[in-house]
Amino acid sequence: MANKARFWDKVAQKYFKSPISDEAVYQRKLELTREYLTEDSDVLEFGCGTGGTALAHAPYAKSVLATDISGEMLAIAEQQKKDAGIENVEFRQADFDSFEDEKGRYDLVLGLSILHLLKDRREALKKVRHVLKPGGVFVSSTACLGNRMWFMAPILWAGRLFGAFPFVRVFTVGQLVRSIEEAGFVVEHEWLPPKSIAVFVIARKPE
Question: Most buried residue, 29, 31, 120, 193, by CB count within 10 Å?
Answer without folding.
Answer: 29
